[in-house]
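Chain A, query sequence.
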Amino acid sequence: MSHTYPVRNILVHLDHGPRTPVRLGLAVALARRHGARLLGLFAEHGKAHSVGVVSVWPSDAYRAASAASRDAFATATEGLAGAEWRDANRGGAAEVIQGVTDAARHVDLAILGQEADDGTSLVPPGMVEQVIQHAGRPVLVVPYAGPVAVPFRRPLIAWNHSRESARALNDALPLMAGGEGATLAVFSRHPEEEQASTADCVRHLSCHGIPATVEILAADGIGMMDMLLNRAADEGADLLVMGAHAAGSGFPGLHRGGGGTRHILGHMTVPVLMSC
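Chain A, predicted structure.
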C-alpha cells in the first residue's frame, strides 16, 4: 500500500498555443485521479495595444485569447470540484515569469509546457527553467510533441546521490503509484560501489508500492544527458524523473551547473518531473 504525500493542489499553465489542450487534459486527468483542486493560470507574453501615443493593456488580441482560454478550461473541467481559472493579466516577460513562479509556490505540483524551438513559443524564453529553479515546487514539464497520458506506467528515475535527485524521486512518488514499475538509472564513475545505495533506493520505492529495477550507467561527463534521453526511449519510459541543478552548482557525474537541466528541457520527448 502506498503512503505517499498526496497531490491535492495542482497548477497548470495555459496560453493559446497548440499544445495547451494536451497540457490541460493531463492536468485534469491528474486532478481527477488524485481528488485535487486545479488552478488554470492563463499567462503569455504580449504587447500593449497602442492608441495614438498611449499604450493600453490588455490588447484586443490578449482579451480574445484570455476569453477563449477561460471557456476551454470550463469545458475541460466540467464536474471537477474546486477547479479555478485565473488570468495573470500581464504581458511583460519578467512579469509573466514572476506571475507563474508565484502561483507555483502555493501548489503541490505545477504543470508547464516545453518551450517550442521554432520561435513560436508564447511564453518568455527560459520561463520553464526559471520556474523550476525558483518556485521551490516540483514541476511536470509536458513535451511539445507526442501523446501523454496518466497514470504513468513506466517511469525512469535519474539518480546520482544528490539532494536534487532525492527531492525529485520523492516528489514523483504520487505520480508513479499504480504503474508497472520504475527503472532507477544510476549514474556513477564507480559502478562497483553502487550496490548498497541502490538497494536503499529500491527499498524506499517498495515501501510506497513501486517495484523498481536498477540500471547502472558509467558516467562519462559530456554525453550523460543524451544517454539519459536514449535510455528513456529504449525503456519505453512515459515519465522521466530527475533533479534540476542551478547554474554554479555541481551535478556529480553529469554536466556542471544548469546545462544538463537546459539540455533535457530542450530535447525531452516524454514528460519530465523536475525538482530543485
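Residues 248-257 have pLDDT under 50 and may be disordered. The first strand starts at residue 9 and ends at 14.
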